[in-house]
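ZP: hey, is the trimethylamine oxide complex queued? I don't see it on the tracker
AM: it wasn't, my bad. submitting now with these inputs:
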Amino acid sequence: MKLRKTSMIRSLIVAASVSLMAATGAVRAADSTAPIVIPIHNWSSQIVMAYVLGGMFEGMGNNVEYVPADSQAVYESIRNGDVTISHEVWQSTFGKSFYNAMEKGGVIDVGTHSATTLEEMGVPTWVIDEGLCPGLPNWEALKDCHENFTTPDSGGKGRWLEGPQSWHGDLMPERLTALGLDDKWTVKFAGGADALWTELAAAKKEKRGTIVFNWTPNFTDAEGFTFIEFPPYEEGCRIADGGDGTCGSPKGWLKKAANYKFPKTHPKAYTTFSKVDFSTTQIGEMAALVDIEKMDHKDAAAKWLADNEDVWMPWTK
Ligand code: TMO
């Protein structure tokens, strides 16, 4: 009886000290001095947020490296450890690459921002107010208004100005064909996001119709931009996923991803990254600092960090 009690107490003590060691181990573990590699893509909020997160990590004593990266191929780079994180995984455009990399192993889901997303063709709202395509935002209105959207390079068809082809490949040309609109409309790809904003400004000045690819959260939320409503998105509806390709984009999520070793190599930075959660307004602000205020991305990030300590400081604790 006595012996039994002693051994019970002993095993309790062992259990307690093991969990104490685990707890202090977790608290004491220092982040590796190896750099946290943050990708830089080709739209403003992503670049500003890269420097916002980098600034937070550096403030915690981490080393940070920024690498320009293709926004689709980056998930393979995260998987093999060349890149550490992705802080703006947009469902419509990158969901497939993200899940493909996760399935191969090496990429983890680090949570979802509060902001919900939409990446879709649309018009500045004044185009609707001016009656340049009666019936918008319903897509069927496009059957009857292409003459108001022709450009010198569009061969008499209405033009959709898509983002860079690196974002969606042939998603939009395939959709035009699937909807039976390709005899009246054609897709041109912008060289970069700036070309979309230049087009919005030019069309407004010339009071001509324009249809461009855009997304929310973005700086354009504040000015009034209306996304076209296509047949609803369903899993597998795109040509690339075996569907008929008529569907629009999902009202989607915005996630964070990381290499699976990040929680081990940089436990503090990982914990901070897991708490990072931006709203539609905050992401729109980051884009606006560059695309409206014309600030350099790094200066915009420094300003955002200075103005929003109450938002991000608690994440680093
Ligand atoms: C990924 N993007 C925000 C450009 O659609």
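AM: back. Strands lie at 36-40, 64-68, 85-90, 107-112, 118-124, 158-162, 185-189, 211-216, 225-227, 254-259.
ZP: great, adding it to the tracker
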